[in-house]
Structure formats: structure tokens, C-alpha cells
Model the fold of this input.
Amino acid sequence: ELQAAFRDPNSPYHIPEGSQGPASPDEVPSPVRSAAEEGRAYFEERGVDVASLWEQPVVWGDHDAFQHVNNVRYVRFFESGRMRWITSIGHELGGPERVDALLCARGISFILKSIEVNFRRPVQYPDTLLIAHKPEPEPDPKRARTQFLLRAYAFSYAQRTIVSDSTSVITWYDYDKLAKCDPGDEQWAPILARMG
Done:
């Protein structure tokens, strides 16, 4: 039974493969967090809406000739995470019908104006990236009611750190009128709450 306790990852006596046990029988091992738990905790401590986190598995086909994830893939990874973030906003604004309207560009929704990506560390297969988004105010007061910044971060489970980040300009857009707009205070509320 003692051997089983050493092998069970949920046991306080778990010894991960390739590591050594405690120096003495009195030493109580500290709990080991998984990479996913570590990533979630990292973002939660920074005020990110954890309900909107997106896990992005890295596949072999994401590599380029330089044997790391091709830089353009990050734009797609951040896009997938942004859709999860928009889904979270939609649920707060009115549930599944509002989510559908936001994602299918009906009525007032969002449009991506620009995106900038910073590459901090190369990523290789196998890995999973935890994608997080956090809105920030538009610095130009003339545009502050029609757009905002959306920061995105990719946390690598293999490296246990941020490997890429992004800044997008998101514009409120009325798809019926085909024009940017101020959506009103009710629509702004969940965005402003996430900026806090």
C-alpha cells in the first residue's frame, strides 16, 4: 500500500517519476500543482475571467521549418481564445441567444480592428497553451466609447510561463448599419467589469 501511495498523484506521498522522495521520514512533501492548475492560478491572480480561458493543444502540423510553432499560428490561437472570451461576455449579456448573435455578427457585436503579437519563447510539440484575455481601456478619449484594447496571453504548460502575448483593438460594430457604434452602458458593463 505504501508503494501505491507513492505512485498516486493525489496522495500527499506521491513521488513523481524521475524524482526523489523526502530527505527524512518527517518531511511532508508540498502539494504539486499541475501545469493547468498553475496556469489558471497565474491568470486568476491577474484578474482574468477564468471562465473564458481557452486550452489550445499544439499539434505537430503547427511547426514550421525552424522546428517551432509557426508565428502566424498564434494569431489563430488568440482568435480561438477571443471567441471563448466573447462567449463569456454573451452569457453575461443575455445567455445563449446573445452569444449566438455576438458570434454570428447580428446586431451589435465586435469586430477586430488590429492585432499585434509578441513572441517571447519558441514552442514545440508536444505542448498545450492556455490562452487568456483581459480588456483594457482605449487610451484615445475620442474612441473610448467605440473600442477597447484586448490583451491576450499564451501560457505554455510545458514551459510553465508566458510564451507569447498580444494586443488587439476591438471595435463595437453595428452589423445592421455596417458602422462602428457606442453600444450603450448595458453592453459595456461586462467589459468594464473585466477591466477592473
Q: What stands out?
A: Residues 18 and 115 are 42 Å apart (CA to CA).
